[in-house]
Amino acid sequence: MNESVDTLQSLIISAHRLTRIAAQHTGNGTSPAVWRTLSILINDGPMRIGELAAASRVAQPTMTKIVQNLAAEDLIRRIADVDDARAWLIAITPKGQNALNTWLQQVAESAAPLFSDLTADDWAAMRAVASILERHISVSEVAA
Amino acid sequence: MNESVDTLQSLIISAHRLTRIAAQHTGNGTSPAVWRTLSILINDGPMRIGELAAASRVAQPTMTKIVQNLAAEDLIRRIADVDDARAWLIAITPKGQNALNTWLQQVAESAAPLFSDLTADDWAAMRAVASILERHISVSEVAA
DNA sequence: CCGAACTATATAGCTGCGCTATGCAAAATC
DNA sequence: GATTTTGCATAGCGCAGCTATATAGTTCGG
């Protein structure tokens, strides 16, 4: 079972290197926390700041600040929560969806040359693993 | 080929979420740049600060600072370069190897419960992908 | 060999992330 | 309806990582 440990380690380190390669290649230094947050909003729909902080795995005040910055750029919008006057629902805007897509596109394009020699089987394995990870790290799973 | 783009995006986002889960779970907030650096030193042996900065994909002054911090904790040591008095070779110490291993172990252990239901086939796919990524994002590959 | 250009690292100073501690206002509880 | 609890905001700190620049060693033309 130690192979699992090595595998996870390797996956994580490689992914972080990919991120840095893309960040340098595109000159886009947007923080991972920002696009993690946008991606959560797309996948799981509008939610409160507190939920968003837990889902994106940052402290609540950190998420407050992220949301403020995103709102200033119209990438998200705040919707009053009719049930609780203290709370807001945070929703991604079309502009926000574009911003995330553009960023992800840049990452993938920066990485693409490194993977030009992958076979169809390789890509199939990559897709399978991406799917496994998504299922097991989704917001609902991790809530436990 | 757009599937490749989606796949890479998904892998990267999942990996970053795993990292945050581990950081919160263990309370170990060590910067990704630090263990990326240590992992490069283990895989590729001693190298200069400039090379290390390029390999870890940070600016040179950033690496200077990282190396200073790591040296203060005896996780790396500086070796004078006999060929060039301006340069140093940076080598990881046994203590540094332990530190990296401990950190990676914590990450994997934090993640393990999420993956307890994976089949042997799933793990085989994970290993295959980890291997693919390592081969394509190694320091020598990326030098281009 | 001597000075100019180049190179390897270090320093200075900035911006912004993410944290803890705390404040404040709305719910919930009794 | 006063107390406790909850959800978010603010304050303020520490540090990562950046650009610009300084410093010291190397290389190369003459």
UniProtKB/TrEMBL annotation, chains A, B:
InterPro entries, alphabetized: HTH-type_Bedaq_tolerance, HTH_MarR-typ, WH-like_DNA-bd_sf, WH_DNA-bd_sf
GO molecular function: DNA-binding transcription factor activity
Pfam families xrefs: MarR (PF01047)
Domain HTH marR-type: 1-138
Stored SMART domains: HTH_MARR
Protein name according to UniProt: Winged helix-turn-helix transcriptional regulator
Source organism: Naasia lichenicola
